[in-house]
Amino acid sequence: MVHIATAKDKELAVPRHLQLSGHVGFDSLPDQLVNKSVQNGFHFNIMCIGETALGKSTLMDTLFNTNFDCTSSAHNLPNVKLKAQTYEITESNVNLKLTICDTIGYGDQVNRANSHKALVDYVDAQFEAYLQEELKIKRQMATNHDSRVHVCLYFICPTGHGLKSMDLECMKQLDTKVNIIPIIAKADTISKSELDGFKERIMKELINNKVSIYQFPTDDATVADVNESMNLHLPFAVVGSTEFIMVAGKKVRARQYPWGSVHIENEAHCDFVKLREMLIRTNMEDLRELTHKRHYELYRQRRLEQMGFVDVDSNNQPVSFQKTFETKRSKHLASLQAKEEEMRQMFIQRVKQKENELKDSEKELHLKFEKLKREHLDEKTNLEESRRLLDEECQELQRRKQQFTNGNGQMSTLTLGRSKKK
Ligand SMILES: Nc1nc2c(ncn2[C@@H]2O[C@H](COP(=O)(O)OP(=O)(O)OP(=O)(O)O)[C@@H](O)[C@H]2O)c(=O)[nH]1
Ligand SMILES: [Mg+2]
Protein backbone atom coordinates (compact mmCIF):
# COMPACT_ATOMS: atom_id res chain seq x y z
CA MET A 1 0.00 0.00 0.00
CA VAL A 2 1.42 3.41 -0.96
CA HIS A 3 1.32 6.04 1.77
CA ILE A 4 0.81 9.58 0.48
CA ALA A 5 2.34 12.20 2.79
CA THR A 6 -0.32 14.47 4.25
CA ALA A 7 0.06 18.05 5.43
CA LYS A 8 0.09 16.73 9.01
CA ASP A 9 2.99 14.36 8.23
CA LYS A 10 4.93 17.22 6.70
CA GLU A 11 4.29 19.36 9.76
CA LEU A 12 5.56 16.58 12.03
CA ALA A 13 8.74 16.20 9.94
CA VAL A 14 9.77 19.83 10.56
CA PRO A 15 11.70 20.03 13.87
CA ARG A 16 10.26 22.35 16.49
CA HIS A 17 12.55 24.72 18.30
CA LEU A 18 12.41 24.39 22.10
CA GLN A 19 14.00 26.30 24.95
CA LEU A 20 15.71 24.36 27.75
CA SER A 21 14.84 25.33 31.29
CA GLY A 22 18.18 24.16 32.71
CA HIS A 23 21.62 22.72 31.85
CA VAL A 24 21.36 19.28 30.22
CA GLY A 25 24.95 18.58 29.26
CA PHE A 26 25.07 17.82 25.56
CA ASP A 27 27.16 20.94 25.10
CA SER A 28 30.04 18.62 26.01
CA LEU A 29 29.56 16.72 22.76
CA PRO A 30 32.46 18.50 20.98
CA ASP A 31 34.74 17.65 23.92
CA GLN A 32 33.56 14.04 23.82
CA LEU A 33 34.35 13.97 20.13
CA VAL A 34 37.83 15.40 20.69
CA ASN A 35 38.51 12.91 23.51
CA LYS A 36 37.35 10.01 21.36
CA SER A 37 39.51 11.13 18.44
CA VAL A 38 42.53 11.57 20.69
CA GLN A 39 41.98 8.09 22.11
CA ASN A 40 41.75 6.55 18.64
CA GLY A 41 44.78 8.44 17.40
CA PHE A 42 45.25 9.85 13.90
CA HIS A 43 46.62 8.71 10.59
CA PHE A 44 48.51 10.97 8.23
CA ASN A 45 50.13 9.76 5.05
CA ILE A 46 52.62 11.77 3.03
CA MET A 47 53.92 10.90 -0.41
CA CYS A 48 57.26 12.47 -1.32
CA ILE A 49 57.84 12.62 -5.06
CA GLY A 50 61.12 13.92 -6.28
CA GLU A 51 64.25 13.05 -8.17
CA THR A 52 67.09 11.23 -6.50
CA ALA A 53 68.96 13.21 -3.82
CA LEU A 54 66.65 16.25 -3.92
CA GLY A 55 66.53 16.20 -0.12
CA LYS A 56 63.26 14.27 0.45
CA SER A 57 64.43 12.29 3.47
CA THR A 58 66.21 15.29 4.98
CA LEU A 59 63.08 17.42 4.67
CA MET A 60 60.94 14.76 6.40
CA ASP A 61 63.42 14.65 9.29
CA THR A 62 63.35 18.44 9.43
CA LEU A 63 59.54 18.67 9.29
CA PHE A 64 58.92 16.20 12.10
CA ASN A 65 62.03 17.17 14.05
CA THR A 66 63.23 13.61 14.28
CA ASN A 67 65.46 11.13 12.53
CA PHE A 68 63.45 8.62 10.51
CA ASP A 69 66.64 6.66 9.91
CA CYS A 70 66.10 6.21 6.21
CA THR A 71 68.52 3.90 4.53
CA SER A 72 69.54 5.10 1.12
CA SER A 73 68.16 3.00 -1.74
CA ALA A 74 69.65 1.82 -5.01
CA HIS A 75 69.24 4.23 -7.89
CA ASN A 76 69.92 2.01 -10.85
CA LEU A 77 66.46 0.49 -11.05
CA PRO A 78 64.80 0.13 -14.46
CA ASN A 79 61.52 1.53 -13.05
CA VAL A 80 60.35 3.94 -10.38
CA LYS A 81 59.65 2.18 -7.07
CA LEU A 82 57.88 3.28 -3.92
CA LYS A 83 58.88 2.64 -0.36
CA ALA A 84 56.29 3.22 2.34
CA GLN A 85 57.19 3.15 6.01
CA THR A 86 54.86 3.79 8.93
CA TYR A 87 56.00 5.44 12.16
CA GLU A 88 54.18 6.06 15.41
CA ILE A 89 54.89 9.46 16.91
CA THR A 90 53.40 11.19 19.92
CA GLU A 91 53.13 14.86 20.80
CA SER A 92 51.32 16.03 23.96
CA ASN A 93 49.33 12.78 24.22
CA VAL A 94 48.25 12.91 20.59
CA ASN A 95 49.27 9.76 18.77
CA LEU A 96 49.95 10.00 15.09
CA LYS A 97 50.52 7.06 12.77
CA LEU A 98 52.57 8.67 10.07
CA THR A 99 53.27 6.91 6.79
CA ILE A 100 55.95 8.33 4.55
CA CYS A 101 55.91 6.99 1.03
CA ASP A 102 59.10 7.80 -0.79
CA THR A 103 59.92 7.48 -4.47
CA ILE A 104 63.04 5.52 -5.38
CA GLY A 105 64.71 6.17 -8.70
CA TYR A 106 62.25 8.85 -9.84
CA GLY A 107 63.81 10.55 -12.85
CA ASP A 108 66.74 8.10 -13.05
CA GLN A 109 65.49 6.35 -16.18
CA VAL A 110 66.38 7.33 -19.74
CA ASN A 111 62.74 6.96 -20.77
CA ARG A 112 60.68 8.85 -18.21
CA ALA A 113 57.37 8.70 -20.04
CA ASN A 114 55.88 6.24 -17.56
CA SER A 115 57.52 7.50 -14.38
CA HIS A 116 54.16 8.49 -12.92
CA LYS A 117 52.54 5.06 -13.41
CA ALA A 118 53.85 3.45 -10.22
CA LEU A 119 52.76 6.53 -8.23
CA VAL A 120 49.22 6.57 -9.67
CA ASP A 121 48.94 2.82 -9.07
CA TYR A 122 50.05 3.22 -5.46
CA VAL A 123 47.49 5.98 -4.75
CA ASP A 124 44.72 3.92 -6.39
CA ALA A 125 45.73 0.77 -4.50
CA GLN A 126 45.31 2.59 -1.16
CA PHE A 127 41.85 3.84 -2.21
CA GLU A 128 40.93 0.33 -3.33
CA ALA A 129 42.01 -1.18 0.00
CA TYR A 130 39.83 1.35 1.84
CA LEU A 131 36.88 0.70 -0.50
CA GLN A 132 37.16 -3.07 -0.04
CA GLU A 133 37.09 -2.62 3.74
CA GLU A 134 34.07 -0.33 3.41
CA LEU A 135 32.21 -2.89 1.28
CA LYS A 136 32.74 -5.73 3.78
CA ILE A 137 29.79 -6.95 5.83
CA LYS A 138 31.88 -6.79 8.99
CA ARG A 139 33.71 -3.50 8.57
CA GLN A 140 36.50 -2.38 10.85
CA MET A 141 36.91 1.17 9.71
CA ALA A 142 38.03 2.47 13.11
CA THR A 143 40.85 -0.05 13.56
CA ASN A 144 41.65 -0.44 9.88
CA HIS A 145 44.94 1.20 8.86
CA ASP A 146 43.94 4.07 6.58
CA SER A 147 46.79 4.23 4.11
CA ARG A 148 45.20 6.71 1.67
CA VAL A 149 47.66 9.41 0.67
CA HIS A 150 46.63 12.70 2.30
CA VAL A 151 49.24 14.90 0.74
CA CYS A 152 51.81 14.67 -2.00
CA LEU A 153 54.87 16.87 -1.61
CA TYR A 154 56.21 17.33 -5.11
CA PHE A 155 59.92 18.23 -4.97
CA ILE A 156 60.86 20.53 -7.84
CA CYS A 157 64.48 20.58 -8.93
CA PRO A 158 66.00 24.06 -8.22
CA THR A 159 67.04 24.68 -11.81
CA GLY A 160 65.73 28.25 -11.85
CA HIS A 161 64.25 27.61 -15.31
CA GLY A 162 60.89 25.97 -14.91
CA LEU A 163 59.16 22.62 -14.62
CA LYS A 164 60.29 19.54 -16.53
CA SER A 165 57.76 17.73 -18.71
CA MET A 166 58.01 14.79 -16.29
CA ASP A 167 56.92 17.08 -13.42
CA LEU A 168 53.92 18.39 -15.33
CA GLU A 169 52.87 14.95 -16.56
CA CYS A 170 53.12 13.41 -13.11
CA MET A 171 51.21 16.21 -11.34
CA LYS A 172 48.55 16.14 -14.08
CA GLN A 173 48.03 12.41 -13.57
CA LEU A 174 47.76 12.80 -9.80
CA ASP A 175 45.87 16.04 -9.31
CA THR A 176 42.40 14.45 -9.14
CA LYS A 177 43.62 11.74 -6.78
CA VAL A 178 45.68 13.51 -4.19
CA ASN A 179 46.36 16.96 -2.66
CA ILE A 180 49.54 18.19 -4.31
CA ILE A 181 51.78 20.77 -2.64
CA PRO A 182 54.67 21.68 -4.94
CA ILE A 183 57.89 22.68 -3.21
CA ILE A 184 61.19 23.91 -4.57
CA ALA A 185 63.81 21.62 -3.07
CA LYS A 186 67.28 22.70 -1.93
CA ALA A 187 66.22 26.32 -2.26
CA ASP A 188 69.55 27.45 -0.79
CA THR A 189 71.14 26.67 -4.16
CA ILE A 190 69.18 29.38 -5.95
CA SER A 191 69.53 33.14 -5.49
CA LYS A 192 66.73 35.27 -4.05
CA SER A 193 66.18 37.27 -7.25
CA GLU A 194 66.07 34.11 -9.36
CA LEU A 195 63.71 32.45 -6.91
CA ASP A 196 60.85 34.93 -7.37
CA GLY A 197 60.94 34.54 -11.16
CA PHE A 198 61.24 30.77 -10.81
CA LYS A 199 58.17 30.59 -8.54
CA GLU A 200 56.19 32.74 -10.96
CA ARG A 201 57.14 30.59 -13.95
CA ILE A 202 56.23 27.40 -12.11
CA MET A 203 52.78 28.72 -11.18
CA LYS A 204 52.20 29.92 -14.75
CA GLU A 205 53.19 26.56 -16.18
CA LEU A 206 50.87 24.75 -13.76
CA ILE A 207 47.96 27.01 -14.71
CA ASN A 208 48.68 26.75 -18.46
CA ASN A 209 48.79 22.97 -18.23
CA LYS A 210 45.62 22.89 -16.09
CA VAL A 211 47.32 21.16 -13.19
CA SER A 212 45.35 21.80 -10.02
CA ILE A 213 47.41 21.90 -6.87
CA TYR A 214 46.12 22.01 -3.29
CA GLN A 215 44.88 25.44 -2.25
CA PHE A 216 44.89 26.21 1.47
CA PRO A 217 41.20 26.61 2.39
CA THR A 218 39.77 30.04 2.92
CA ASP A 219 36.28 29.06 4.05
CA ASP A 220 37.18 28.85 7.74
CA ALA A 221 37.26 32.44 9.06
CA THR A 222 39.86 31.62 11.73
CA VAL A 223 42.51 30.65 9.18
CA ALA A 224 41.18 32.32 6.02
CA ASP A 225 43.61 35.24 6.09
CA VAL A 226 46.77 33.28 6.73
CA ASN A 227 45.78 30.60 4.21
CA GLU A 228 44.94 33.18 1.58
CA SER A 229 48.31 34.88 1.94
CA MET A 230 50.13 31.52 1.96
CA ASN A 231 48.45 30.49 -1.28
CA LEU A 232 50.33 33.40 -2.87
CA HIS A 233 53.68 32.02 -1.67
CA LEU A 234 53.33 28.69 -3.48
CA PRO A 235 55.46 26.83 -4.40
CA PHE A 236 57.34 26.98 -1.10
CA ALA A 237 61.09 27.16 -1.47
CA VAL A 238 62.43 24.89 1.25
CA VAL A 239 65.74 23.87 2.75
CA GLY A 240 66.22 20.82 4.94
CA SER A 241 69.00 19.88 7.30
CA THR A 242 69.93 17.40 9.97
CA GLU A 243 72.61 19.68 11.46
CA PHE A 244 72.22 22.11 14.39
CA ILE A 245 74.24 25.20 15.24
CA MET A 246 74.14 27.62 18.14
CA VAL A 247 72.71 31.05 17.29
CA ALA A 248 72.45 33.61 20.08
CA GLY A 249 72.61 30.79 22.64
CA LYS A 250 69.87 28.84 20.93
CA LYS A 251 70.22 25.54 19.08
CA VAL A 252 68.85 25.97 15.56
CA ARG A 253 68.62 23.71 12.53
CA ALA A 254 70.91 25.05 9.80
CA ARG A 255 73.10 24.28 6.82
CA GLN A 256 76.59 25.65 7.14
CA TYR A 257 78.70 26.85 4.25
CA PRO A 258 82.15 28.42 4.10
CA TRP A 259 80.50 31.78 3.46
CA GLY A 260 77.76 31.56 6.09
CA SER A 261 74.80 29.48 7.16
CA VAL A 262 71.17 28.97 6.21
CA HIS A 263 68.83 28.84 9.16
CA ILE A 264 66.02 26.51 8.28
CA GLU A 265 63.44 28.15 10.53
CA ASN A 266 64.34 31.69 9.51
CA GLU A 267 61.63 32.94 7.16
CA ALA A 268 64.08 35.34 5.54
CA HIS A 269 66.21 32.36 4.50
CA CYS A 270 63.56 29.96 3.17
CA ASP A 271 59.87 28.98 3.27
CA PHE A 272 60.33 25.93 5.51
CA VAL A 273 58.33 27.45 8.39
CA LYS A 274 55.51 28.37 5.99
CA LEU A 275 55.39 24.77 4.77
CA ARG A 276 55.38 23.33 8.30
CA GLU A 277 52.73 25.82 9.39
CA MET A 278 50.47 25.08 6.45
CA LEU A 279 51.02 21.33 6.23
CA ILE A 280 51.06 20.34 9.88
CA ARG A 281 49.88 23.11 12.16
CA THR A 282 46.98 24.59 10.19
CA ASN A 283 45.71 22.34 7.44
CA MET A 284 46.49 18.74 8.38
CA GLU A 285 42.84 18.01 9.14
CA ASP A 286 41.70 19.76 5.96
CA LEU A 287 44.07 17.58 3.93
CA ARG A 288 42.68 14.46 5.63
CA GLU A 289 39.10 15.61 5.10
CA LEU A 290 39.61 16.61 1.47
CA THR A 291 41.23 13.25 0.75
CA HIS A 292 38.15 11.50 2.12
CA LYS A 293 35.47 13.82 0.81
CA ARG A 294 36.84 14.69 -2.59
CA HIS A 295 39.54 12.36 -3.85
CA TYR A 296 38.32 9.11 -2.29
CA GLU A 297 34.71 10.01 -3.11
CA LEU A 298 35.63 10.41 -6.77
CA TYR A 299 37.48 7.09 -6.80
CA ARG A 300 34.60 5.34 -5.01
CA GLN A 301 32.05 6.81 -7.41
CA ARG A 302 34.03 5.67 -10.47
CA ARG A 303 34.59 2.18 -9.06
CA LEU A 304 30.93 1.68 -8.08
CA GLU A 305 29.86 2.82 -11.55
CA GLN A 306 32.34 0.36 -13.04
CA MET A 307 30.74 -2.34 -10.90
CA GLY A 308 27.38 -1.39 -12.45
CA PHE A 309 25.80 0.57 -9.59
CA VAL A 310 23.79 3.70 -10.35
CA ASP A 311 21.84 6.21 -8.26
CA VAL A 312 19.26 7.08 -10.92
CA ASP A 313 17.93 5.18 -13.94
CA SER A 314 17.58 6.44 -17.53
CA ASN A 315 14.36 8.27 -16.51
CA ASN A 316 16.21 10.02 -13.70
CA GLN A 317 14.30 8.01 -11.12
CA PRO A 318 16.17 6.86 -7.99
CA VAL A 319 17.32 3.26 -8.14
CA SER A 320 17.68 1.33 -4.91
CA PHE A 321 20.74 -0.80 -4.15
CA GLN A 322 18.42 -3.83 -3.98
CA LYS A 323 17.00 -3.11 -7.46
CA THR A 324 20.48 -2.65 -8.96
CA PHE A 325 21.59 -5.87 -7.29
CA GLU A 326 18.56 -7.79 -8.58
CA THR A 327 18.97 -6.42 -12.13
CA LYS A 328 22.65 -7.32 -12.08
CA ARG A 329 21.87 -10.76 -10.66
CA SER A 330 19.26 -11.53 -13.31
CA LYS A 331 21.60 -10.21 -16.02
CA HIS A 332 24.35 -12.40 -14.63
CA LEU A 333 22.05 -15.44 -14.50
CA ALA A 334 20.87 -14.78 -18.07
CA SER A 335 24.45 -14.52 -19.28
CA LEU A 336 25.30 -17.73 -17.40
CA GLN A 337 22.36 -19.49 -19.03
CA ALA A 338 23.37 -18.19 -22.46
CA LYS A 339 26.91 -19.44 -21.85
CA GLU A 340 25.59 -22.83 -20.71
CA GLU A 341 23.37 -23.10 -23.81
CA GLU A 342 26.28 -22.11 -26.01
CA MET A 343 28.45 -24.79 -24.41
CA ARG A 344 25.68 -27.37 -24.75
CA GLN A 345 25.30 -26.58 -28.45
CA MET A 346 29.04 -26.77 -28.87
CA PHE A 347 29.06 -30.15 -27.12
CA ILE A 348 26.24 -31.51 -29.32
CA GLN A 349 28.06 -30.28 -32.40
CA ARG A 350 31.29 -31.93 -31.29
CA VAL A 351 29.48 -35.22 -30.57
CA LYS A 352 27.80 -35.11 -33.98
CA GLN A 353 31.09 -34.34 -35.65
CA LYS A 354 32.78 -37.24 -33.84
CA GLU A 355 29.86 -39.55 -34.72
CA ASN A 356 30.17 -38.64 -38.39
CA GLU A 357 33.91 -39.18 -38.25
CA LEU A 358 33.36 -42.61 -36.68
CA LYS A 359 30.73 -43.49 -39.26
CA ASP A 360 33.07 -42.49 -42.08
CA SER A 361 35.91 -44.58 -40.73
CA GLU A 362 33.53 -47.54 -40.22
CA LYS A 363 32.39 -47.24 -43.81
CA GLU A 364 35.97 -47.07 -44.96
CA LEU A 365 36.82 -50.17 -42.95
CA HIS A 366 33.83 -51.99 -44.36
CA LEU A 367 34.87 -51.16 -47.92
CA LYS A 368 38.39 -52.30 -47.18
CA PHE A 369 37.05 -55.56 -45.76
CA GLU A 370 34.83 -56.15 -48.80
CA LYS A 371 37.73 -55.50 -51.10
CA LEU A 372 39.95 -57.89 -49.19
CA LYS A 373 37.18 -60.51 -49.19
CA ARG A 374 36.79 -60.15 -52.95
CA GLU A 375 40.52 -60.40 -53.49
CA HIS A 376 40.62 -63.45 -51.27
CA LEU A 377 37.78 -65.08 -53.22
CA ASP A 378 39.46 -64.31 -56.53
CA GLU A 379 42.69 -65.77 -55.26
CA LYS A 380 40.85 -68.86 -54.03
CA THR A 381 39.12 -69.32 -57.39
CA ASN A 382 42.42 -68.90 -59.16
CA LEU A 383 44.06 -71.39 -56.87
CA GLU A 384 41.26 -73.89 -57.36
CA GLU A 385 41.53 -73.46 -61.12
CA SER A 386 45.28 -73.99 -60.99
CA ARG A 387 44.72 -77.02 -58.81
CA ARG A 388 42.16 -78.40 -61.22
CA LEU A 389 44.55 -77.86 -64.11
CA LEU A 390 47.32 -79.46 -62.13
CA ASP A 391 45.07 -82.43 -61.31
CA GLU A 392 44.19 -82.78 -64.98
CA GLU A 393 47.84 -82.59 -65.92
CA CYS A 394 48.61 -85.24 -63.31
CA GLN A 395 45.87 -87.49 -64.62
CA GLU A 396 47.13 -86.98 -68.17
CA LEU A 397 50.62 -87.81 -67.03
CA GLN A 398 49.35 -90.85 -65.23
CA ARG A 399 47.42 -91.91 -68.29
CA ARG A 400 50.44 -91.44 -70.49
CA LYS A 401 52.60 -93.31 -68.08
CA GLN A 402 50.15 -96.11 -68.10
CA GLN A 403 50.01 -96.02 -71.84
CA PHE A 404 53.75 -96.01 -71.97
CA THR A 405 54.01 -98.90 -69.52
CA ASN A 406 51.42 -100.83 -71.50
CA GLY A 407 53.25 -100.06 -74.78
CA ASN A 408 56.56 -101.36 -73.42
CA GLY A 409 54.93 -104.68 -72.29
CA GLN A 410 53.47 -105.34 -75.73
CA MET A 411 56.82 -104.53 -77.29
CA SER A 412 58.68 -107.06 -75.08
CA THR A 413 56.00 -109.73 -75.70
CA LEU A 414 56.33 -109.12 -79.44
CA THR A 415 60.14 -109.33 -79.26
CA LEU A 416 59.94 -112.46 -77.14
CA GLY A 417 57.51 -114.19 -79.59
CA ARG A 418 59.75 -113.37 -82.54
CA SER A 419 62.86 -114.84 -80.85
CA LYS A 420 60.92 -118.00 -79.91
CA LYS A 421 59.93 -118.42 -83.57
CA LYS A 422 63.59 -118.25 -84.42
N1 LIG B 1 72.01 22.28 -0.43
C1 LIG B 1 71.13 21.47 0.13
N2 LIG B 1 71.40 20.18 0.28
C2 LIG B 1 70.47 19.37 0.84
C3 LIG B 1 69.22 19.84 1.24
N3 LIG B 1 68.50 18.81 1.75
C4 LIG B 1 69.29 17.73 1.69
N4 LIG B 1 70.47 18.06 1.15
C5 LIG B 1 71.59 17.16 0.88
O1 LIG B 1 71.30 16.39 -0.29
C6 LIG B 1 71.77 15.08 -0.14
C7 LIG B 1 70.64 14.08 -0.35
O2 LIG B 1 69.69 14.26 0.65
P1 LIG B 1 68.57 13.18 0.96
O3 LIG B 1 67.69 13.76 2.00
O4 LIG B 1 69.17 11.87 1.22
O5 LIG B 1 67.85 13.17 -0.45
P2 LIG B 1 66.74 12.14 -0.94
O6 LIG B 1 65.90 12.89 -1.90
O7 LIG B 1 66.07 11.50 0.22
O8 LIG B 1 67.62 11.09 -1.70
P3 LIG B 1 67.20 9.62 -2.19
O9 LIG B 1 66.33 9.03 -1.14
O10 LIG B 1 68.50 8.94 -2.35
O11 LIG B 1 66.49 9.84 -3.49
C8 LIG B 1 72.39 15.01 1.24
O12 LIG B 1 73.77 15.20 1.12
C9 LIG B 1 71.78 16.17 1.98
O13 LIG B 1 72.60 16.70 2.99
C10 LIG B 1 68.95 21.23 1.06
O14 LIG B 1 67.89 21.73 1.37
N5 LIG B 1 69.93 21.98 0.49
MG1 LIG C 1 65.72 9.50 0.68
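The chain has ten helices and nine strands.
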